[in-house]
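Practice problem: predict the structure.
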Amino acid sequence: MSSTDVNMPPPSSNTLKAWSGRLHVKQIADLFDRPDVINNTLGIILLIAALFRFHGMNWDEGRHLHPDERFLSTVTNDLQWPENLGNYFDPNTSTLSPYSLPNMGLYVYGTLPVYIVKWTAILLDRNNYDKITLVGRNLSALFDIATILFLFLIAKRLYGKKVGLLAASLMSLSVMNIQLSHFYTVDTFANLFVVGTIYFVLRANESGRWLDHALTGLLFGLGLASKLNVIILILPIVIGAGINLYRRGRAGKDARAARR
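Answer:
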């Protein structure tokens, strides 16, 4: 044994605690490398999100206190599901067009959320003014939960599963998202399609598959049918497609050059 070993002071209690803390953190972090832990944690996050979003849906006790929600509930109630789609594309005569209703004026919302809520209300036998509002609120919450799942997939693809769980947990506790989930408005519907579009833009840019490009266009169209300002998403879609085409063209040139 050397003199340095004899003279070396024992580690302090603070040092031992720091080492122990680091070991515990590392053990916990290593747990999240297991697929079953990732899936179970994501399930718990979505369950917590659902508890916050579905709690207290009848917060105004049927008084229709939210003005935008009151307007959408009125429109949804007054629209009629057609027996056929023969005049669907004529906004002045189609029974699914808000402009066919008397004294409508300017309709500034997307129609897709209204159609989804109307169809669901008919299926559940809740197609009246008061119950339509509750159907819309529950669907709004459901769409927001689906948005959390898409956010997890985006963060997982860009930064890994642990960051994906962090992003999902933060959004599940977001006060604004919880609040919007309690309203029958178009926001959470549009948010799902926006986040879904971004996810498929990333997938298409990485894979180059036409299916991913098609799904990007589909979700973008659904988002645009929910809220007009989703049109701004055309920029990342075009940029992503342009980068992908450039990479594929560059790869093709390199392959041809290698064969020469």
